[in-house]
Amino acid sequence: MEKIKLMSLYTDFRKDMSYIEKELERSVQSSSPIVRQASLHLLKAGGKRIRPIFVIMAAQFGTYSLENAAKIAVSLELIHMASLVHDDVIDDSDMRRGLETVKAKWNNRVAMYAGDFIFSRALTSIGNIEKAPVHQILAETMLEICKGEIIQIDFQQQTDQDLRDYLKRIKRKTALLLSSSCELGALSADADSQTVRKLKRYGYFTGMAFQIVDDILDITSTDAELGKPAGSDLLNGHITLPVLYIKDDEQFKPYMKRAFTGVMEESDRQAMLRYIRQSGAIEKAQHVSDLYLIKALKELESLPNGKSKKALTQIADFIGQRKY
Amino acid sequence: MEKIKLMSLYTDFRKDMSYIEKELERSVQSSSPIVRQASLHLLKAGGKRIRPIFVIMAAQFGTYSLENAAKIAVSLELIHMASLVHDDVIDDSDMRRGLETVKAKWNNRVAMYAGDFIFSRALTSIGNIEKAPVHQILAETMLEICKGEIIQIDFQQQTDQDLRDYLKRIKRKTALLLSSSCELGALSADADSQTVRKLKRYGYFTGMAFQIVDDILDITSTDAELGKPAGSDLLNGHITLPVLYIKDDEQFKPYMKRAFTGVMEESDRQAMLRYIRQSGAIEKAQHVSDLYLIKALKELESLPNGKSKKALTQIADFIGQRKY
């Protein structure tokens, strides 16, 4: 299969996406210099803008209004950004996407309030949308994301967890927000309820796959590709899907124990990563991701053909083979 | 003047307030044991529930519905609670209202996510209110509160600030949320726009007075009365109104310098507090608070008489003479 570049999928929606990018920048303007700088730093660090693109594409299945869709897209991307800043404080992470994190470049308190600030901006962005379900869905989504972050604490370094625990966790961490992106995009354009439901499920399934692949890449990629040390999840005590398949392996246990201390000799970390890579755990995790992607594509089948359906299909394919 | 007990003001609204109390408890239920415990701990720590009572009373000036008013009251009280948890992380505070803070009893990460969680619950509570202005006002209020917290960082330990800087800060820290409590309470009951405006201004003025008195009490009260060390504001680098009046006093400067290190000998702290108390700064600050309360009472004048107007008047009086 030809390698897909995510950005090429955005071609048809380039104008809309650049409008959203400007709105994102506008939305984090602040009279406090520190916050403005911290927020812009975050924004420039980029990311794939998958939430906005999902909103835009889902909205194509109804009566599309860029202005309405953009409000929702900005809101969802900001919620995502806010949760990243807070995660970095919790995980004590210094690097993300190859750039210093806010908490490293400034400090924890700036990161905390920058997160709160961006969170609030997310609400302002949809403040004047006159649809109660939109507010309700967003509030529920934020609530579940928070619950997820908290449950992540409960589960840290806990080795007696199973596939169900993991799937519940990544649902809250990633899939829900992608699912809501599709749902709210479609809702904002008054798409019919069947279509809304299908897009919501598409978002959920691709979200699950996306996070599994993310967790795989944390083990299979180089530090340079990740922009942070490979194996960070384990060093932070997070047990992801590949590790779930190998955590009871007697030879692996001592690695895990050392990883949980949060610091590891460079050679030890590399040996641990090699051990996981050759264990077959990666392939098992990849398989689960593939199953989700099949489900995602199935949801699209009965939707009307067009640029948007094509792009959503390609995104699912992209997730299946992404290397970054 | 007879000493007013705040709780006695609530007599006429006791049933409504206990309904809100139950809703508050219900709203912080969570499947995560840590979060449930942390949130309940916060809730039990209490506070004066001034935001809910303002909502209830303001709603009396329209077509009162306890159910609607309660949603807004819960939302505003939760936003207040969430900002307290995050403040405690920032200020590294171990005690609040005589109880251990969440960050002390658990840790910073629990406090951070408990704050985020409560924040999200606040949104869920008003999620199904079908009035766009309510969402807009709440979003704006949260935004301004965040900005305030951030500006507080910019101003920490900065001695070249004036009355205007201080007033702007306490507006965001306290007055806005009280102002929005009155505004949203009245709006939720479809009060006429003149009434909404007057109540909003009443909430703003009492809020300004409330925070000034709070800042005075941080200096004039005992540790036992405060449930935390007196002078904490200065130890955390926050320059409040009384200190603003004395900060350029040559004999006071060395105290302030030592306070800004965050640790002070017990006898030194007591001497500093005595020095401020006898300087006349407290009386000057009290005078500013009194001016705000006069403005607050003026807003009430033209509103229809009744239990609610009487109680709002008494609250303003209470703030003027409160000792805790």
UniProtKB/TrEMBL annotation, chains A, B:
Pfam families hit by this protein: polyprenyl_synt
Cofactor(s) named in the record: Mg(2+)
Domain of life: Bacteria
PROSITE patterns in the record: POLYPRENYL_SYNTHASE_1
Keywords linked to the UniProt accession: Magnesium, Metal-binding, Transferase
Keyword Translocase: no
CDD domains given in the database record: Trans_IPPS_HT (cd00685)
Protein family (similarity comment): Belongs to the FPP/GGPP synthase family.
Name by which UniProt lists this protein: Heptaprenyl diphosphate synthase
The species this protein was found in: Sporosarcina ureae
